[in-house]
Amino acid sequence: MKRSRVNEIMAQAEEMIQEFGFRLPPFAWWSPAEFKARLPQAQRIVEAAMGWDITDYGQGDFDRLGLFLFTLRNGDLRDLQAGHGMAYAEKLLISRRDQISPMHTHVIKAEDIINRGGANLAIELYGSDAEGNFDETAGGRVMCDGVPRIFTPGEVLILRPGESVTLRPGDWHAFWGEGGDVLIGEVSTVNDDKTDNIFRDPIGRFSEIEEDEAPRHLLVSDYDKFL
């Protein structure tokens, strides 16, 4: 992706987030220079990969296959393994109309996916085989706002604004905005986007950025390069 396109997507996301009355944390608005200057105090933000995240999954077609995310907070895997401490994470996402977030699952992370507003959110669901691999013949069971729901292989679950689904490791899922753009909340156990996204097809989690202009704000995938 070109940096100019990333900056454009970021500006559009800012507008949508503000329309729904949501407020991002102060570090969201730091310029790259300010982030670097604050790095001694912001090390936790960097280590936890909190912040802006825009991906086309390395496929070069964000409008068709992509997702906007902002990681608001993220815990420590060591706390999760110990069974106490900061074992949770929270994100804000935007899924555009008919924009696919491709079929995937997680090994560690369980997550609540919440439609925070906008259009409906469509989620395609499959179960796993005995080894946790994608199984086109497997259904499963999820919780929708505390109520159990059995799904058949490939069933598309529609979440209206305010509705949510709990997905556990082994619940394979893809999602998109149905009829419009959707603001999505994600509340989960500790998040590790480098190792805990298992895609059905061989695609990347992060985008390669072509630097045709200066960054508006740094992406989490920029931290190693710019900081």
TrEMBL record:
Reactions this protein catalyses: D-lyxose = D-xylulose
EC supergroup of this enzyme: isomerase
Family matches, as Pfam families: Lyx_isomer
InterPro entries with a match to the protein in the record: D-lyxose_isomer, EcSI_cupin, RmlC-like_jellyroll
Enzyme Commission code: 5.3.1.15
UniProt keyword terms in alphabetical order: Carbohydrate metabolism, Isomerase, Manganese, Metal-binding
One term of GO molecular function: metal ion binding
Cofactor: Mn(2+)
Family statement: Belongs to the D-lyxose ketol-isomerase family.
Name of the protein in question: D-lyxose ketol-isomerase
Upper taxonomic lineage: Bacteria, Pseudomonadati, Pseudomonadota, Alphaproteobacteria, Rhodobacterales
